[in-house]
Amino acid sequence: MPSTTTSQNGSHHEASPSPPPPAPVPLTPGPRASRLEKVYAEALARTLRANSYANFSACFPTPAKHVPASLESVWRQLNAKLEESAKAEFDEIMREKDAVRGLNELDRLVGEAKLRRENGEGESVVAPHTLGAEDLYRAHLAPFLQEAQDSLNEKLEATQVQNAELAEKIRQQRLEIESLLSGLEVIVADVEGAAGATAQFSKENNLREEVVKMDEEVKARQEI
């Protein structure tokens, strides 16, 4: 029966009921805790099988040859002690970390989440009549705006691809122009060299002609 409180004016009203306490988490290993224990047991068994008597006796050839029964007894005791210590340490860690309780709680939360998802709970469903005019307006426009945005995104991606192709073509054309300019510079240098050589040749011919004229004038004067 819910408790009642009395106000200053003498009226009575029921207090809001407190939420029920959460169900206690059982300490019996659930699916995840059981799986953890199974995996550890399998790993420990593989470790013990790896320490076979053949491998163990190979490390002690002399006792294995002379007292094999005693060596085998030591091997069995060693494996038993190893198994006992490993299990005890695992159990101690499970107790210290309260692993069973935590894993059981995780199992419970996952189960509740799956149940809510199957029942359609957890999804925010808003009745249309509770929305305002602006919200309804946006809700009706949202599909069209999304379609327009998708179309613009596609066009933008296509334009970016075309721009990248044009940029590559421009780069190739620039390389070709640079190559042509380099070749043209070589041709101009050759032409300038040829022009210089021609001018030098003409200059040398003019000097020869002047020398010939001077020789002729000298000879003419000597004859006079």
From TrEMBL:
InterPro entries: PMF1/Nnf1. Residues 1-34 are annotated as: Disordered. Pfam families: Nnf1. Residues 149-176 form a coiled coil. It is found in: Chromosome, Centromere, Kinetochore; Nucleus. Keywords: Cell cycle, Cell division, Centromere, Chromosome, Coiled coil, Kinetochore, Mitosis, Nucleus. Residues 1-10 have a biased composition (Polar residues). Residues 17-29 have a biased composition (Pro residues). Its main location: nucleus. This is MIND kinetochore complex component Nnf1. It comes from Paecilomyces lecythidis.
